[in-house]
Amino acid sequence: MEIGVVGKPNVGKSTFFSAATLVDVDIANYPFTTIEANVGVTYAIAEHPCRELGCTPNPQNYEYRDGKALIPVKMIDVAGLVPGAHEGRGLGNKFLDDLRMASALIHVVDATGRTDAEGQPTEHHDPLEDIEFLEREIDYWILGILKKGWEKFAKRIKLQGMKLEAAIADHLSGIGVTEEDVWEAVHGLGLPGDPTKWTDDDLFAFVRELRRINKPIIIAANKADAAADAQLKRLIRKGKGRGYIVVPTSAVAELTLRKAARAGFIDYVPGSGDFKILKPLTPKQEKALELIREKVLKRFGSTGVQEVIDRAVFELLKLIPVYPVQDEHKLTDQFGNVLPHVYLLPQGSTPRDLAYKVHTDLGRTFLYAVNARTHRRVGEDYQLEFNDIIKIVATAK
């Protein structure tokens, strides 16, 4: 799973990425600072079962802090986007190539409206236009891939009796489209099962719906601390009207806090509404941190960066954390580690899905599972829940 951070130049996209991952990237106030995609690891944060169960975990593939699980997620900061990217303008081809396999997109916009469509300083720009143009660029990009030889392709599907969903998914596999994505788009729109009957309008409607399903987007309304309340309320309201989650964000504040925490100056958990000073600061440092506390944390409750990541993972992608164990009573693996591993699985996943995630052989030889919370045996039709702890029982090799 990969989350892409996208947006036009100068909106704070690379700052957001750096704040989320603490990967040092070029951050400058001119277009196309990001040319080659930056790749890093961020963390989705969820309450840990040990907070409820009174245990102390020994995490192996995640981090544990203050009763929370910090679950690693791959993040990519792609080249800045300008209108006409699908036609190759700016770094359009690079931009689109970088987000091919992204499971979800975080679209960073300038909530103040002080960056125009090309990423240049201005006084009055509607950030809603940025949301619309990102949709449009991705739509036309997918349409361009699909429409190439569409008539012959559609006739071949019909004449050879091919499964529509499988054929289109295979055609679009390079951008991570699955049969389930295609099925949901086709049936959601009520399109004919015979693709030769699709009109140009049908094809474009299909592409728009497919983009919504395959590349879901959350909006980070960045520079929120410099935006008026009325601006933010309008952006949130209008964004919601278009089906988006919009989160007021200050990437600069988050980056400052995380760097201060890494240097040992403060105790700060990403997503928190405050921090604790651990050692003496210079007057300049103290003033900067106090400004963040007053202008960002007290106003919004957090910097918004972690909220965006968490909502992208748990709400947008509908993933749930699940902990496999070997001993359902002690909640340990074979080495005695308490809840050592966590996996993010789609809602609706089953214990067999978890078994395959742990190891292919375990999935193949799956017999049943045990819910460690209830100590009840569950079958492969059981739907896993958020923070489930599961023992997999399989046949011996």
Structural class: alpha/beta
CATH architecture of the largest domain: 3-Layer(aba) Sandwich
CATH class of the largest domain: Alpha Beta
Radius of gyration: 23 Å
What fraction, in percent, of the residue positions are helical?
A: 25-40%
- Biggest sheet architecture: 7 strands, mixed
Distance between the termini: 30 Å
Q: Strand portion, in percent?
A: 15-25%
CATH homologous superfamily descriptor of the largest domain: P-loop containing nucleotide triphosphate hydrolases
**Poorly predicted regions:** 25-35
Overall number of structural domains: 3
General description of the model:
This protein has helices spanning about 15-20, 50-55, 90-100, 125-145, 150-160, 165-170, 180-190, 200-215, 230-240, 250-260, 285-300, 305-315, 350-360, 360-365, and strands at about 1-5, 40-45, 65, 70-75, 105-110, 215-220, 245-250, 265, 275, 320-325, 345, 365-370, 375-380, 390-395. β3 and β4 form a beta hairpin. The strands form three sheets. Strands 1, 2, 3, 4, 5, 6 and 7 form a seven-stranded mixed sheet that branches. It has about 400 residues and is α/β, with parallel strands linked by helices. α4 packs across α8 (about 200-215) and α7 packs across α8 (about 200-215). The model is unreliable at about 25-35 (pLDDT under 50). The protein contains 14 helices and 14 strands. The chain has three domains: about 1-35 and about 80-125 and about 215-315, Rossmann fold, CATH 3.40.50.300; about 150-215, Helicase, Ruva Protein, domain 3, CATH 1.10.8.470; about 320-395, Beta-grasp domain (Ubiquitin-like (UB roll), Roll), CATH 3.10.20. It starts with a strand and ends with a strand. The longest helix is centred in the middle third of the chain and has 21 residues, at about 125-145.
